[in-house]
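Section 3.1: Structural characterization of target chains.
Under the original work plan, the team committed to producing a structural model for every single-chain target entering the pipeline before any wet-lab resources were allocated. The record below documents one such target. The sequence was received from the expression subgroup and is listed exactly as submitted; it comprises 743 residues.
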Amino acid sequence: MRRRRRPAERRPAEPRGHWFLVAIAALLMTGALLLDAYAHNVVGETRPPVADYGDSAELERIRAGGPLVNVSGPRPLSARPRPRRVALTFDDGPDPRWTPRLLDLLREHDAKATFFVLGAHVAEHPELTRRVVAEGHEIGDHTYTHADLTAVPAWRVRVEMSLTQKALAAAAGIHTRLARVPYSSGPGAAGLGQLGAMRLLGDEGYLVAFTDVDTQDWSRPPVDEMVLASLARMRKGEGAVIMFHDSGGDRTRTLAAVDRLLTRLERKGYSATTLTDAVGLPTAHTAAAPDERVLGTVLGFAQRASFAFVGALGWFLAAAGVLTLLRLTLFVALAWAHARRARRRSADLPRWTAPPPVSVIVPAYNEAAGIEATVRSLVRTDYPGPVEVVVVDDGSADETGRIAASLGLPGVRVIRQPNAGKPAALTTGIAHAAHDILVMVDGDTVFEPPTIRHLVRPLADPAVGAVSGNTKVGNRGGMIGRWQHIEYVVGFNLDRRAFDLLGCMATVPGAIGAFRREAVASAGGVSADTLAEDTDLTMAICRGGWRVVYEERARAWTEAPASLGQLWRQRYRWCYGTLQAIWKHRGAVVERRPFGRRCLGYLTVFQVILPLLTPVVDVMALYGLFVGDPLPVVAVWACFVAVQALTGWYALRLDGERASVLWALPLQQFVYRQLMYLVVIQSVATAVLGARLRWHTVRREGTFTLPGTSTPPGRSVPQPPVAGRRRRTVRGGNAPARRRSRP
């Protein structure tokens, strides 16, 4: 039967603006991660370069020439440093730790040097680049990310060099005509790959710098070895280009070697100067155009913002992991304590002198598929006291009211009213209820025979105002049903055990709950202020000073959404309603009782903030898989799932459920969890934008009803399973059923 929306709940559809904001945020986040991944694609000399071989006439000229090469003309031209001129060159900087110390050392020796910088480092530390230029040193372009120019396409070569020039323009207002190919050494080691890169650089107007002495300081050789290798080139008073590094690792030995080398050079009458000055050329610096400075400023800001964003994501990831582990550990410990207390509580609880009469209220809207199963399960109770069942048909467009009335069961009344919403239906039921103990149950839920008895017993304590029962998923046959079954047992019922001990029960679920009429009245009745009327009512009762407890033996079997779309709509309503309830009862935080601080604090942290941070886990996991080492990501994920599995096993054991369902837990991490935090994101966005969320109904499949639109009076209805491990699910209609004993 086609379902119609409740007329009284026709609210404007929530705006699409929040999805636009989410899309913009996702786009910005993706851009930041991509920029961070690109800028940090620097693995230094620890990665072997692509083998570069080959011979040609051009290569022979380059190999036989000096360390500064110009390939912009028809044939290569090269230059050597003049006698007693030494050009110290430093690659891969600037580095915030080592470059300042190196600059201080050069100033002590009154020496100049050439720094072949990485554009990503310049954009990250522009102040260091400005200091290098201000102190009279020279800058060269060493690409943006230390890319191997022999192994990347031509467009990437141009991008690498151009981005570095823009970073230099923003940092120091200059461009440079010097370039050094990453993974290059002396001109004698050049191959065809480097020749191709050099041609591209020559076309862009660069002079390509090699070296006479590669100290290989990245491998951290002894200091004396680096000094002797540098001096060996200058035995006959020749000039030389010497390669060091000021980034990429511990450069303590590099600093020591430079210090000793400069001291020895001073004694020998050598001059340490820039590369262009050493070969007798004008400075490599040119003034950058204003538009280049603007573009470089934007690039630098974007890169630093991306670095900060990824760093913040790392902290958020750590915070989310710590909070999750703390919550799991604490709640397992509290659940264990609750289980021990529950075993003793049976003897310690006050007892009724006589079973009090009970009114069961069933608000129903278009529940024709399951209303008969619900009502029959309530009548079949083994509760020894009087029980009346009040079914409130809230303007259903189907046969809900007729089916309930046609059953002719004793103690069942059907009240029909125009559609006004679930809170109004509950209020009507309370007004017509004859007794002071009120049990509220949804029209798609089935009680076990002992459920009402277990619900009512804690109310013998006059301080208890409400009792939360144990909601179980009846249609757990499919994957979505299994995921919800795990969530109900682990995420809901385990939490309620902890809430019981802490005295901060957040919700008595609409599917199963018992209330003292006096407690409901003191809370102002069932309010229609939020879409989570059960959470709103529970919070109001707790704020009134009543205790709200959890009774795990009071089981109710409910029909959970059978599709992702239905699940989304249900959880969206729940989450949005919870946000409304938190905001409505925010004053509880400053009240004398600890309920507000505990309950609202928990809900805010673990049901709002943590789900908002949860996408960080997935984003950083994907980032680590594609950008970094995937093994730590896989290890952390496996440990996280293992902890969840252990928690789930214990929760299932407490509830007498089979642990075999946990095989679906790892799969839950890839669909279900993402759906839940997207629901929170959408709910928070809707709330921030001030939109009113309309009521979302869930289409019922009739889990607890045999085939047919209704069950004729007298026909048996599939029953929920009894407690214990001997539990199974009957395939017919996916209805849980008791295992039959042998004759």
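The radius of gyration is 37 Å.
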